[in-house]
Amino acid sequence: MYAPLPADKITCSEEERAMFKREPMYVVDKGIFTHNAFPYLEVRRPFILGSIQKKWKPTVAHWFARLLFEHNLLQSVYTQNIDGLDYHVGLPDDRIVP
Question: Which SUPFAM superfamilies does this one have (predicted)?
C-alpha cells in the first residue's frame, strides 16, 4: 500500500517515537495530532502534495456524482474527502459534505 516513514525520521518526542514504533497507527490519532501535528503531516506529505499536483485521478464514482449533479439529481455527497477528488471533477462546495 505505502512505505511508512521510519519512526526515527519523524519530528516528535522520544515518548511519541516509542509509541509510533510499537504502533504506527498512532500517527493518525486525534489526541497526538492536537498535541503535535508534525508526525501526521510528515507521513501524509507525499499524499497531500500528490493531491495538489493532481497526481491522483478521479474514479468512476467521482464522475458519476458529477453526472448526477449535471442532471440535477445530486442533493449532496458525504465524503471524507481526503484526496480532494470531489472538487477536481467540478462538484460545487455546497454539495460536498465532509
Answer: DHS-like NAD/FAD-binding domain (SSF52467)
